Each structure stands twice: as C-alpha cells, then as structure tokens.
C-alpha cells in the first residue's frame, strides 16, 4: 500500500500521505482494521435505517460493541512494546465478532459472513505463520457458519453443505493473498539486498570520487577530461585557473575557439583545429605540445599532453588532457640560449681577428720557416674549427641553420670520414671500418653531412675507451639515404637517451670520467639533419654499445 486518495471539490486530498510501511506499527494495525470498522459502521447505519428491530438483538449489539472495542484496542495498545506477532489477535477477534454479527443480523441483512474477508486478508497478507493463516482462512469462516448450527442442535447435511461454499471461497482468497504476499516479501528482500549492495557501491564510488577530486586538486597540473563530443567531464582546480587565464575579459563563458591560445611566438593565435583540446577530441595522442595561454604580463607557457579513452568495445569515448605550467622552464631555456648567443657573438670578433692576422702571416711565405709555419697552421685550423662551432651555435639558437644541397656521392663522404679517423681509432685499440656501396648519390650539403659523420664517428671512438668495433654503414631505403654509426662501447641508460640531443648534455658516467667534450656535437648534428628534412634516432644498451642512425631524403 503506497497511498490512498480521493478527490473532492477542493481538489486532490491524500488520506495516506506516505507509504504504508513507513507508518508506526500502531498506525499499520489501525489502518488494517479500518476497512472492517467502516463496513461495520455502514452495516449499523443500514440496520438503524431499515431494520431497527434488529438493534434489539443482543448478539447484533454485541457485534457492534465488540467492533468498537477492537478499534479502541488498535489505537490504545502499544503494539511496538509487545511481541511482534501479537497484533494478529485483532483479526482473530474480528472473526468472533463477525460470527456474533451474522447470527444477530442475518434475518435483516444478507452477506454479513462476507465481512470475514477482511480478517482473512489481514492474516494472510501479514506474511506471518503462512500455513496457519491459510488454515484459518478456511476454518474461521466455516466456524462462523457451523458453530451456531451446532449450538442450535438442529443440524442436517443440507444445512452444512448449504454454507460450505463461503469457506472454500475464503480459502481461495487466503491462498491467493498468501502466495502474493510471500512473492512480494521475496521481491522486497531481493530489492533490499540489491539496495544494500548499491549503497555499498555508491558509498565506495563517492569515496573514490572524493579521493580523486582531492588528488586532482592537490597536483600542480591542470587536468581536463572530455567526452567524445567535446563536453567537459572533469576539470580540476588548477585547470579552472588555466581556463580563466585563457578567457578573454569581455566574454563571460567563452568556447574553445574564443580562448586566448597562442603559438610559440606568443602573438599568433593557434587555429581552433590545432588547439590541444580540439586535437584531443579528434582522438589525437600527443606529448609536450607547447602553447601560451592568456595575454600580456600574465601570459603563461603551458605544456600539454593528451591520451584517448575507449569504452568496453574499444570505441573512442573521450580524452584526458594534462596542462603543465612550464613558464619558468621556458624562460630559463631562453635565458640560457641568450647567454650562449651573447658569448658566441663575443667570441666571433676576436676569432675573426685572429684568423685574419694568421692568414696575413701565412701569406708571407718568404719570411716564414717551417718551424714557424707549423704552429701558425695549427692556430688557423683550430681557430676555424672554433669559429665554425660558434657560427653553428648562433645558427642553431636562431633556428637559421642553413644548408646548400647539391648532388654528392655520400659513400665517398663516409669513406673519407672513416679514413680521417683511422689513426685515432688505432690509438684507442678500435677496429674502425666502413660498410658502404661504391656510390650512393643524394642532394645534400656535403660539408654539413661530413660534419655529422665526423661527430658521430668521433663520439663512437671517444665512448669506447676499452677498444672494440665501430662500423659506419650506408644504404638507400625508401627514398632516403640512411647512415648508421655503431659501436661496442659504454652505451647509455634510457634516461640518458631521452636527453642526449639536448645542448650541453653529458651523461653522468661521462662527466665522472676523463673523456673530453662540452655536449654540443649531437645537438648540432641533429639540427643539421633536420635542416635536410631528415631525422636522427639511436639505440643503446649500457655496457653493450650504441647505434646512431640518421636518414635524409635522397632528393632535397
């Protein structure tokens, strides 16, 4: 029973304003007795109106009084303090009361025995003692009819059979109600069990949600999760600050295309389809994609990374984007580059002067002896090398490392580089050899690629202090000229491999050794290869050696 209502002139009025099971035990007993009490009241009214002589029958008066007493008991007895099934005495008393009413008023009103349906339903719907309730649903109505017959003494088979149909009907109603009640009780237990399980899961889910929100609000990274349609699912506190920073002051709730997201130059707005969130919504996966958020003095450099999410069927379900503020790092790198640039500029002027004067001295062939010319040649060669290094640093800093491609036999460059390094390899106990075809032509800057080869071969020899093998191989592959320099030397850890192309980087094992170097060769080599439209990669294992491979297009 959930609620009972009727509609009058004033509109809908609720009699029971809450579900039946939410009432107190006394309230439920009262409500269960109410149908029979109302029926008894209607019966009394009919008798008073049409059969007043029946009111002189003491049995009928006993029926009415007993119904009034039973109703008072329902209201007055503190059922919650008594054993729980004790309230079932009420429907049993109802059966006795109905027996009195039938015997005292059956000559006036027919069908008084049918009021037994109310206590029968009550007993069977209680769900308590179901077998006894079903038995009472038959024997109770049967007793209402047969007991008076036996008390009068005149009993015939016809009398007994004439009234037997009513108990059978009540039995059917009792069985039906009992079965339905037991089924509902089982369903209620199942629902309560599932509700309990759901509450446990919900509690755990809320606890996990609180933990996740606490963790996300603690980290110094902005985290944004979006669904496949681009709608925000989750945004932590740091990311809300990033979003506020990128929002134009004149727009209260900007969309992605209206946010102030700038490229590396800090002035060019990034196209909408190239912005981190849009790329993530399109299913892209990327790492360390740098953008600038905001404008003016508050502008911040943000490194973004994205990873897609999939559903249980493997379909794209959204992405998680991480935003890290790297403004201080970017500014520090810019300051370092500016320092290198300034120092390189300062070096260039005296180096140019030194080379100029050395050239003048060397041009005076008549006045120079062999002992004087040798040191001057060394000064010129090292000054030129240093000037080239300074120029490369400046070009790399400005992103202007220029190459002049022309048709070149790269195999010859490889052999020349290997030949030049043979004396040093022999001194270090290293077997150096070239594995190249007779001819492999490519459009490259010969001087620049020679510089890359010399760098890689020099490093291979330098970082093989215990001897071993160094092989320089050359091949053509997929429209590219591919060159590899392999050694069996010290090798590098995974962490060192990730930073090896950074300017001024030297591995920890090398810094603690006597191996010379400043950590610029690989950075410059990478810039040269990329200026040709190529790429550089490496494969290394500590204690087993390293292989550097670079590939550039044959036609540039």
From TrEMBL:
Ranges for the Histidine kinase domain?
A: 342-556
| Cofactor(s) listed in the protein's UniProt record | a divalent metal cation
Q: What Enzyme Commission number(s) apply to this enzyme?
A: 2.7.13.3
A GO molecular function annotation here is:
ATP binding
Work out whether the entry's keyword set contains Signal: no
Please give the chief subcellular localization of this protein.
membrane
Entries under SMART domains matching the protein: HATPase_c, HisKA
UniProt keyword Transferase, yes or no:
yes
Instruction: List membrane-spanning regions.
Output: 34-52, 59-78, 84-101, 108-128, 134-151, 163-185
**UniProt-listed Pfam families:** HATPase_c, HisKA
Give the GO cellular component terms, alphabetically. plasma membrane
Q: Report the subcellular localization.
A: Cell membrane
> SUPFAM superfamilies, alphabetically?
ATPase domain of HSP90 chaperone/DNA topoisomerase II/histidine kinase, Homodimeric domain of signal transducing histidine kinase, PYP-like sensor domain (PAS domain)
* Reaction equations catalysed: ATP + protein L-histidine = ADP + protein N-phospho-L-histidine
InterPro entries, A to Z: HATPase_C_sf (IPR036890), HATPase_dom (IPR003594), His_kinase_dom (IPR005467), HisK_dim/P_dom (IPR003661), HisK_dim/P_sf (IPR036097), PAS-like_dom_sf (IPR035965), Sensor_HK_Regulatory (IPR050736), Sig_transdc_His_kin-like_C (IPR004358)
Query: Any idea which UniProt keywords this protein has?
Result: ATP-binding, Kinase, Membrane, Nucleotide-binding, Phosphoprotein, Transferase, Transmembrane, Transmembrane helix, Two-component regulatory system
For this entry, the protein name equals histidine kinase
- What organism, scientifically named, is this protein from? Arthrobacter sp. K5
């Amino acid at each position: 029973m959930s609620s009972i209502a009727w509609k009058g002139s004033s509109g809908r009025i609720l009699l029971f304003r809450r579900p039946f099971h939410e009432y107190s035990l006394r309230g439920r007993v009262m409500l269960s007795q109410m149908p029979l009490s109302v029926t008894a009241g209607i019966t009394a009214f009919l008798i008073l109106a049409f059969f007043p002589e029946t009111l002189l029958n003491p049995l009928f008066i006993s029926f009415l009084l007993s119904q009034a007493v039973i109703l008072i008991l329902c209201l007055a007895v503190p059922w919650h303090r008594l054993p729980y099934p004790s309230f079932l005495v009420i429907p049993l008393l109802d059966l006795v009361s109905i027996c009195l009413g039938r015997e005292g008023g059956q000559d006036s009103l027919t069908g008084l025995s049918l009021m037994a349906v109310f206590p029968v339903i009550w007993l069977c719907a209680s769900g308590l003692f179901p077998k006894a309730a079903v038995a009472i649903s038959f024997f109770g109505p049967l007793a209402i009819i047969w007991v008076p017959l036996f008390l009068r003494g005149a009993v015939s088979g016809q009398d007994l059979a004439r009234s037997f149909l009513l108990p059978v009907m009540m039995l059917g109603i009792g069985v039906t109600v009992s079965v339905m009640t037991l089924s509902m009780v089982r369903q209620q237990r199942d629902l309560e069990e599932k509700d309990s399980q759901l509450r446990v899961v919900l509690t755990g889910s809320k606890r996990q949600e609180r933990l996740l929100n606490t963790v996300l609000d603690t980290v110094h990274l902005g985290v944004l999760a979006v669904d496949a349609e681009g709608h925000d699912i989750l945004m932590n506190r740091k990311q809300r600050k990033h979003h506020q920073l990128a929002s134009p002051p004149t727009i209260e709730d900007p969309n992605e295309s209206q946010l102030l997201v700038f490229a590396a130059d800090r002035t060019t707005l990034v196209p909408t389809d190239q912005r981190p969130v849009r790329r993530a919504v399109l299913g892209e996966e990327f790492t360390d994609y740098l953008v600038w958020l905001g404008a003016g003095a508050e502008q911040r450099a943000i490194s973004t990374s994205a990873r897609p999410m999939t559903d249980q069927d493997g379909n794209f379900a959204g992405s998680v984007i991480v935003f890290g503020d790297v403004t201080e790092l970017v500014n520090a790198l810019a300051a370092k580059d500016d320092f290198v640039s300034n120092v390189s500029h300062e070096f260039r002027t005296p180096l140019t002067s030194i080379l100029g004067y050395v050239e003048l001295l060397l041009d005076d062939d008549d006045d120079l002896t062999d002992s004087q010319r040798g040191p001057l040649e060394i000064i010129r060669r090292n000054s030129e090398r240093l000037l080239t290094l300074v120029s490369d640093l400046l070009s790399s800093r400005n992103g202007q490392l220029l190459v002049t491609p022309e048709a070149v036999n790269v195999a010859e460059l490889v052999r020349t580089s290997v030949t030049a390094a043979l004396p040093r390899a022999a001194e270090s106990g290293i077997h150096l050899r070239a594995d190249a075809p007779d001819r492999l032509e490519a459009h490259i800057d010969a001087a620049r690629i020679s510089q890359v080869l010399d760098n890689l071969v020099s490093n291979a020899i330098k970082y093989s202090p215990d001897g071993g093998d160094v092989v320089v191989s050359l091949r053509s592959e997929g429209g590219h000229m591919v060159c590899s320099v392999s050694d069996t030397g010290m090798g590098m850890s995974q962490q060192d491999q990730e930073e090896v192309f950074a300017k001024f980087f030297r591995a920890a094992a090398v810094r603690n050794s006597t191996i010379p170097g400043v950590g610029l060769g690989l950075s410059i080599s990478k810039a040269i290869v990329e200026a040709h439209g190529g790429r550089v990669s490496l494969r290394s294992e500590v204690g087993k050696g390293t292989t550097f491979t670079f590939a550039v297009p044959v036609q540039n």
